[in-house]
């Protein structure tokens, strides 16, 4: 089976997950409800369609960002959380929740504060790695930012003025697509689509970097430009996703691992499949959130952790078994 057929099958799987996302929920919506004459059409068009769109964009952004970062850092365990953008965006959103900052500074809102956090992370990451072309420095700088932002987020929650703000911040940090609507899609989509398009341009440089930094330079790759492209694309795509949904992990880590045996280890060959696979996985996980027993919905971040942790435990056992042979 050649690559084109595999891509078409993956695209078909993604479309099937979109259809599942539109139909699944505490109230299943049959095909008859997908017409303007049915009263349930309002549920489809006002609730399910924006949620499916946001889920597909979020998954595509996370899956693609994971594939790009694993290629850039030449580390299969890298994902968008490594560079600290998610943590800094979460810090901005939690600050707006805890201190009620959404109504000041020109009505910047929670989305604006989260994007300000992501933008600050991008700027700091660029400054900290401005004179170093090694991906190792990139990882160290990202780890520092993620750790500092995580600590400040915990500090803000600790000094929150009331328990309602604490509950709202913790609920938001778990990540969810619940109650997200057209306004959220319109806010986040331009940044997520822009970041995705930027990241899709990195394929050729990542292929050259896979041969080593010296070989990449000899092939004409500009590593400084590549670093800024990775920072910009990941910051826009992941930062906007975190700003409207909260922190959703494991997508960028799991999807490239699942697709590498099917599409090969060459970084450029994994970019588009990872975007499609990330969208399919996120939509499937969000459908599971709605189908879980109980009156409420399980948070998307919780479901992704329940999927991702056993996946990597299996990977650990497989690699450990190879070491003992």
UniProtKB/TrEMBL annotation:
BP term (GO), one: siderophore-iron import into cell
Alphabetic keyword roster: Cell membrane, Membrane, Transmembrane, Transmembrane helix, Transport
Any one GO MF annotation of this record: transmembrane transporter activity
Transmembrane stretches, start-end: 49-69, 81-105, 111-130, 137-165, 226-255, 267-286, 298-317
InterPro entries: ABC_BtuC-like (IPR037294), ABC_transptr_permease_BtuC (IPR000522)
Compartment list: Cell membrane
Key word Oxidoreductase present: no
GO (cellular component) term, any one: plasma membrane
Keyword Cell membrane recorded: yes
Membrane topology annotation: Multi-pass membrane protein
Gene3D superfamilies noted in UniProt: ABC transporter involved in vitamin B12 uptake, BtuC
Pfam families registered for this protein in UniProt: FecCD
Protein family membership: Belongs to the binding-protein-dependent transport system permease family. FecCD subfamily.
This protein's name: Iron ABC transporter permease
Source organism per UniProt: Sphingomonas panacisoli
Native organism taxonomy: Bacteria, Pseudomonadati, Pseudomonadota, Alphaproteobacteria, Sphingomonadales
